[in-house]
Structure formats: structure tokens, C-alpha cells
Amino acid sequence: MTSDNTTPPEDFDVPDATETEKPRFDPFEPEGVRLQKVLAAAGVASRRVSEQYIVEGRVRVNGTVVRELGRRIDPENDLVEVNNVPVQLDTTKRYVVLNKPVGVVSTMADERGRADLTQYTEGYEERLFNVGRLDAETSGLLILTNDGDLAHMLAHPSFGVLKTYIAKVSGRVTAQDISTLTRGIELEDGVIAADKARLLAGQSTGDSSLVELTLHSGKNRIVRRMLAAIGHPVLELVRRQFGPVSLGTLRPGQTRELTKVELGELLTISREVTKLDKAERDAEKAVARAAAESDSSE
């Protein structure tokens, strides 16, 4: 084993010289990257402040608190958290929030020549793509990224990421209508229920009402179809929230980077989903092995 002239901590197990197998990655080997340097490169804090975080026990690597300033990590494989919030160590990943205006289609190249999303991505060096879609008549929050794994998790309805919409609809919406939305509505492609629904106070007149709807379904034009089914067709529709990311005061056509907190919350969801997927796969393998052993013993 090579040495960087530093003495390993007393609780670090030094391999016996006779061992023929070397660990895949040694956290104190010089080929690793110092943890405080990785944190600074990821934009968490300056290197000096990152060192303070480490000493204070606010940093975890693969779920374990790290306090040693000499600790080196493998940025491509290790998972790092600061204050229990995951950190994206891959600095090539970009995450952008767009308030998509009405009249823009959710694609990077529209074959019919309509206004598309390229006008909002051409200023970035990375090749960004949209997470999910909003129809041309709907405005609001779209996430643009080059992180394919996170995009897949966010867009797939089976992962249950909630989206919140505000709809201006025709007619006066009643409490019974709101109850119907949350109980479930029979549509041509099955029953669908909103996770949450409420009538915005003071916004209902004889001609129109404002309804806030939260759901995890990703079916095509689902909000418009649900509201039309209860007799209140949509006049205007905006998506205000996607998971933990909120539109805030972002004006139509404007973009902004995700905050570290927003990205950390999205990564938390992604890692939890990954754990669940792994647990399900392991359970399926265990069942398959048990079945195979049972067959071979007969």
C-alpha cells in the first residue's frame, strides 16, 4: 500500500501485508479526493467552512458521520449529506426551474414550428431537457435538467411525486364538487382522485372559481379532464409546485437555478425511491431462490 506520510487514525484497520486483495476504495489513500474539497466544489460552502462542518459532525458519507479532516472520498460512488440533506457531487449536473408561458409546447423541437423550450435552454452550456410536460395552454413550473436518473424518478407517476395546480374554472364550485374531486371521478381511462383539493377563499363568483388541486397522476391533461367531468371546464391553468419545488414569484418566461435545499429534497426523494426499489428487487430474488431450492429438493 502506498503512503502519503500520514498516520491513519487508531480506529482504522490497516490490512495485513500478506493480504492479496486490496479494498475497492480506501478512504485514506491519496487517490481519493479530500472531503472538504469535494464539498467546496459542490457549492456547499468554502473549504474552510466545510472543514468546520466536518469537525462538528454535520457531514455524513454513505450514512456514517465523518469528523476526520484527512478523509478522502470517491465522488463518483459515495453519497454525501450535510445537515441530513443530500449533496449532488457531480458538478456537471444542472437543474433549472422554468415558468413556462402559455403558448409554448413542452418539447425541445416542435415539428410544427410552434414556440418550444429551446429559447429557454440555449443560454446554458449543458444539453437540458424537460422533466414531464405541460400542454401548450397550461403555464407554470417545469424543471429542466441533464440528470436523466432524477428526471425519470420525478416524471414517473409510480413514484408519487406530487404536483399542485391552480385552475380558474367556469361556474361556481361547491363543497360537494371539492369532495367529488378527492373521492374519485370515473374517466375514460379509469378512476382518478385528487390527493388534495380546495376552493380558494373569496375567489368564487357566479361566473368562475379558483380551485387548487394536488395530485401525483401524470396522465395527459388530467386536471382539465377532472374539472370538466364535474361540470367546471378550465379557463386558465397554472402549475405552482412540483414536489418540493415551488414557482414562487418567478414570472412567465423566466428561469432560475434550483436552490441547494430544493435539490437536496429532490435527491432525498430519489435516494429513498432507490432504496425501496432495491428492497423490492432483493425480496423478489429471495422468493425466486426459495422457489428454485424447493423445486430442486423435490
CATH topology of the largest domain, by name, is: Pseudouridine synthase
Number of beta-strand segments: 17
The largest β sheet comes out as: 9 strands, mixed
Estimated helix fraction: 25-40%
Strand content: 15-25%
Instruction: List the quaternary state of the chains.
Output: single chain
Number of domains: 2
Poorly predicted spans: 1-23
EC number: 5.4.99.-
Domain RNA-binding S4: 33-97
Organism: Mycetocola zhadangensis
GO molecular function, one term: RNA binding
SSE map:
Blueprint: E1 33-34, H1 35-41, H2 47-55, E2 59-61, E3 64-65, E4 72-73, E5 80-82, E6 85-87, E7 95-100, H3 118-121, E8 129-131, E9 139-145, H4 148-155, E10 163-170, H5 175-183, E11 185-187, E12 190-192, E13 196-199, E14 208-215, H6 222-229, E15 234-242, E16 245-246, E17 255-257, H7 260-297
Parallel strand pairs: 9-15
Antiparallel strand pairs: 1-4, 2-3, 2-5, 5-6, 7-9, 7-17, 8-9, 10-14, 10-15, 11-12, 13-14, 15-16
Structural features, described:
Keywords: Coiled coil, Isomerase, RNA-binding. Its EC number is 5.4.99.-. Residues 1-28 are annotated as: Disordered. GO terms for molecular function: RNA binding; rRNA pseudouridine synthase activity. Residues 269-296 form a coiled coil. With 298 residues, this protein is of the alpha+beta class. The protein folds into 2 domains: 33-87, RNA-binding S4 domain (Structural Genomics Hypothetical 15.5 Kd Protein In mrcA-pckA Intergenic Region, Chain A, Roll), CATH 3.10.290; 95-258, Pseudouridine synthase, CATH 3.30.2350.10. Helices cover 28% and strands 24% of the residues. The protein has helices at residues 35-41, 47-55, 118-121, 148-155, 175-183, 222-229, 260-297, and strands at residues 33-34, 59-61, 64-65, 72-73, 80-82, 85-87, 95-100, 129-131, 139-145, 163-170, 185-187, 190-192, 196-199, 208-215, 234-242, 245-246, 255-257. Strands 7, 8, 9, 10, 13, 14, 15, 16 and 17 form a 9-stranded mixed β-sheet that branches. It has a 4-stranded antiparallel β-sheet with strand order 3-2-5-6. A hairpin with a 2-residue loop joins strand 2 and strand 3 (64-65). Helix 1 (35-41) crosses helix 2. The radius of gyration is 25 Å and the shape is globular. The termini are far apart. Residues 1-23 have low confidence and may be disordered.
